Amino acid sequence: MISKWQWLLAQLTRMLWVRAALFALLAVFAALLATAAERAMPEGLPVSIGADSVETILNILASSMLTVTTFSLTVMVSAYAAATSSVTPRAIRLLMQDTTTQNVLGTFIGSFLFSLVGIIALSTEAYGERGRVVLFAFTLLVILIIVITMLRWIDHLSLFGRVGDTTDRVEQAALKALQDRVDDPCIGGHPWLDGQLPDGLIPLYAASIGYVQHLDASELSSCAQEHGLQVYVSSLPGSFVHEARPLAWITAGADDACMDDLRAAFTVGKERSFDQDPRFGLAVLAEIASRALSPSMNDPGTAIDVIGRAVRILSCWPGNAQPQPSEETCCPQVWIPALRLEDLFEDIFTPIARDGAALVEVQVRLQKALQALAERGEQFRTIAEQHAEVAFRRAEAVLVLEDDVALLHELIGKPQA
Question: Which fold has domain 181-269?
Answer without folding.
Answer: Aldehyde Oxidoreductase; domain 3 (3.90.1170)
